[in-house]
Amino acid sequence: MQLSFRGARIRATLLLGSFLSLTCQAQQPRLTPELNKRLLLAAQGSVVALPGLLTEKLPVISYNKMVLPGPQYLISDDPEYIRVPEGMAFRETVTPGAVRVYLYNVNGVKTPAKIDTKIAALLKNTGSRPLHLRMLKFSSQKPTTSYFFAGKQGLADYFAAQPDTAIRTVQPGETIAIDPAQEKAIVKYDELVHGIYEFTIDETAEISVIQTTADKDIIKAAAGITTVLPGKSKSGAGRGVFGVSNYRVSADSVIDTKNGISQIIVADGRHDSWVKGIEGSSGAIATLAGNYGVLYNIDLKWKSSNGQGLALVTWNARSDNNQWCGAMANTMIASNGKFKGGIIQLPSDKLVTRKAPEAVLVQLFMPDGAGEEQTIHLTYSPPGASCLPTPLVFIPVDIK
């Protein structure tokens, strides 16, 4: 999973970038008439060239962050690349209630040869009574080497998912694949298995992620695998059960178009710290570098004291960090504006955005005729496979 590269070096680059953005004097680039026109004419989700406008030194919007009630949150992304033909990358215990599982693992077997494998997230009923599983949100992509596609489409599918009426029954001691298609899916070398699963259960259970060779039944193979592979490799955001699955973010003040361009930054490790959890196999404190899979429910007040509208764009701010940061792809939910509110793939006109001067238009919010305050609602989650942060930039625009 990408932060500013395919591994742990992210922490240094993220902290350095955030430090510079805090200590350098805020700059206000000039929105020329030509750039203003580009924003007004752009389609929602499209890439727009804004030369001279995008910088991490833009004024930062301060905000309050509150933990919202949410499901038990688990992520399997350490080791991200499973290098052995057969092994357990992740194992955690969950209690009755709601559970969110983020699966992000890659077939990394290349010694003595590259081979096909199977990778799946499994659930074992460790209770004494039948367990009933009901899927609330289901997002699963076929194994792919297009990590950006998996991250972007994975969020889009998750946001669009509706609760399933079907209930699966798991007998005491029985193990099932959370995503039945993964039992048979063949994963080639360097392919990512990506899934976000949110469900309810009524008994204690064990969640594990297993890799086995392509010729084996993965449920049967799991019975013979008892040891969790070492983590803390050169790749991966983290693994364990984490104490936060949902945040509510609200700005400390009203955004006013008369004050110029500003940005809100989440999931950067400084303005917004990484969430903590426990890794069950070792009992150690776990850090989720990137806060992947955590939902940010963002509510911002804004007004137009000068009759301008407010364009919201995002961009790949860490494109120059190293070879892994050359692109970004995301999906968000935004409230109504010039365009109908809802799920927006970013970008929508191509797979990824690259680097400045490329921006992606999320929404264009129109001013209230009387200059009254309005509310912007956004749902954001750090995009898997992309470097972080992906700032949300608010640009006042002349709409006449």
From TrEMBL:
Keywords (A to Z) from UniProt: Signal
Signal peptide span: 1-26
Name under which the protein is recorded: Copper amine oxidase
Native organism: Filimonas effusa
